[in-house]
Amino acid sequence: MSLHFLLRAEARSLSLVQVLALSDDDAFTLFRRQRWGDGEDVVCPHCGMVHRHYFRPARKIWRCAGCREDFSVTSGTIFAFHKLPLRLYLAAVILFVNAVKGISALQLGRDLGVSHKTAYVLLHKIRESLLVNREEAALQGEIHVDGAYVDGKVRPANKKEDRVDRRLAENQDADRRCIVVIREAHTEAEVAAGSAGAKKTLTFVRENENQADIGKLASAYIAAGSVICVDESNAYDRLPAKYEVRRVNHGREYRADDGTTNNLAESYFSRFRRFQIGQIHKVAPKYLDNYANEIAYREDTRRWSNGEIFRDIVRKCVRALVSRDGCGYWQGNHRQGESLAI
């Protein structure tokens, strides 16, 4: 019996010990390489000039040859204005990568020896970099779509005569939201070559699962000619007008007689529930899009080695712009509204 990929040696190409063994110069070089490559030229984040700018090694900053402004390897990125050593940011990324079901701010703070506030903001910056750098090209082929509700659980009253019908909208929590997931399956040739699971995952947050929103999401993110696999919910009743739709009634069966399943979407929600219940516990609606996309990224990269995922996340972090939500979070700079799809 062959080992699962995560149990093989090639899946463990980087460890926390190796990251913590990096010197400050090694961490600086890694950030620089991921941001600008191996060449001598760097890009000024102030004016955009590509040049071999004047480097000041004592402070590890450059002075732009054009606008004469100083900048560092993290200027203009999601780690701008950092106060911790770069090595600790790399350690945070590898801890984030190795926690396959997600990691809590409390655990990250204890592992790094920083406050819960610092760990909380750092995790949200990593999640934000994954979201702003995700590819949103239209999916094609066999597509699995489903929705699941998060939070909004209303505790029933103690006495039976005081309880209300929690299925009614007026009796539901205002924080109740629906995550809509769209997943592209591998082709038969890719499956024969050893690929498994979904190929690409996109997540969107809506207030509920309804026909209008599903129709707009399908038009924007599912290519014409695709085959969509969904369950019996009436939110998908309009899709057959534009797509070939295959359905499975989960009230009666897990797999339809013709072999249709919605398993790729269900597997995403299975992992998200474990992340929610086991790690973060409570999800604020304002940041639900970050959490949902994190699990989508973990699902899409589950066949990568942890070293590959580490380098990809660092690359996304140095290419993401300064975080408007993360900078000054504990001084009251919070996201003002939700990021609802459409």
Blueprint of the fold:
Layout: H1 16-20, H2 24-36, E1 42-43, E2 50-51, E3 54-56, E4 61-63, E5 70-71, H3 86-98, H4 105-112, H5 116-132, E6 142-150, E7 177-185, H6 188-192, E8 198-206, H7 211-221, E9 227-230, E10 244-247, H8 263-280, H9 288-300, H10 306-319
Parallel strand pairs: 6-9, 9-10
Antiparallel strand pairs: 1-2, 3-4, 4-5, 6-7, 7-8
Question: How would you describe this structure to a colleague?
Answer:
With 342 residues, this protein is an alpha+beta fold. It has 2 domains: 12-133 and 322-330, no CATH class; 142-154 and 164-283, Nucleotidyltransferase, domain 5 (2-Layer Sandwich). It has helices at residues 16-20, 24-36, 86-98, 105-112, 116-132, 188-192, 211-221, 263-280, 288-300, 306-319, and strands at 42-43, 50-51, 54-56, 61-63, 70-71, 142-150, 177-185, 198-206, 227-230, 244-247. The strands form 3 sheets. Strands 8-7-6-9-10 form a 5-stranded mixed beta sheet, sandwiched between helices. A 3-stranded antiparallel beta sheet has the order 3-4-5, with no helix packed on it. It is globular. The termini are far apart. The mean pLDDT is 91.
Q: Strand order across the biggest sheet?
A: 8-7-6-9-10
Distance between the termini: 46 Å
Report low-confidence residues grouped into runs of 5 or more: none
How many helices? The count is: 10
The CATH topology of the largest domain corresponds to: Nucleotidyltransferase, domain 5
Roughly what fraction of the amino acids lie in strands?
5-15%
Number of strands: 10
- Number of domain modules: 2
User: What are the secondary-structure elements, in order, as H or E?
Assistant: HHEEEEEHHHEEHEHEEHHH
Broad structural category:
alpha+beta
Mean pLDDT, to the nearest integer, reads 91
Biggest β-sheet strands, sense, barrel: 5 strands, mixed
**Helix content class:** 25-40%
Using the coordinates above, name the CATH class of the largest domain. Answer: Alpha Beta
Give the overall shape, derived from the CA principal axes.
Answer: globular
Indicate the radius of gyration in whole angstroms.
Answer: 23 Å
Query: Which oligomeric form is depicted?
Result: single chain
